[in-house]
Amino acid sequence: MKKISFLTKTLFHISNIVLISIYLYPGSILGWFFYGDIRIQPQLNSNFSNFSPNHFYAFLILSLLGIGSYYKDKIKDLFLYLFFISIFLELCHVIIPLRNFEYKDLISNFLGVILIFLLFKFNNFLKNKND
Questions:
Q1: CA distances (Å), 61 to each of 32, 43, 49, in order?
Q2: Second label for 6, Cα 20 to 30 Å away, from 12, 64, 67, 119?
Q3: Residue 120: which domain range?
Q4: CA–CA gap between residue 42 and residue 57 (Å, rounded)
Q5: Tens-binned pLDDT, residue by residue, of the chain (131 aa)
């Protein structure tokens, strides 16, 4: 069990570093990698009306890895961190060249975190109800 815990914590921390690197790079690392142009942002699927799917999926996955790493303790700290980092990274887009602050990206970050938090709370509710 300790090996799994170590693995999930390692994946969570590596994912944080990758996400922060992608967010703070002036332009799109993935656009450069896939299209040879840092001005093109690849989309996993088309934008929904008021939020960005890439941001939603990134924070959904990061939240899942965080829950897998810290499900026994520090859950409140984890979610506070995820909210803080999503705000901080989006605000950094104000000063980074070729990047723009967008409310829909911030809302997408929050939705990814909130969805996992609600699923976690619901799962705990069901566990406590059955005990």
A1: 23, 16, 21
A2: 119
A3: 2-130
A4: 13
A5: 677 778 888 999 999 999 999 888 887 777 887 888 877 777 767 656 677 888 899 999 999 999 888 877 788 899 999 999 999 999 999 998 878 898 999 999 999 999 999 998 898 888 888 76
What stretch of H or E contains 97? none
Residue 51 backbone zone (phi > 0: left; psi -120 to 50: alpha; other: beta): beta
Q: How far is CA 129 from the centre of its chain?
A: 30
Amino acid at 103: Y
Task: Give the count of domains, the chain.
Answer: 1
Query: What sign results for the dihedral spanned by CA atoms 96, 93, 74, 120?
Result: negative
pTM of the shown model = 0.85
- Long-range contacts formed by 44-50: CB under 8 A, 24+ apart: 47/104, 50/104, 50/107
Q: Which amino acid is at 131?
A: D
- Whats the size of the chain, residue-wise? 131
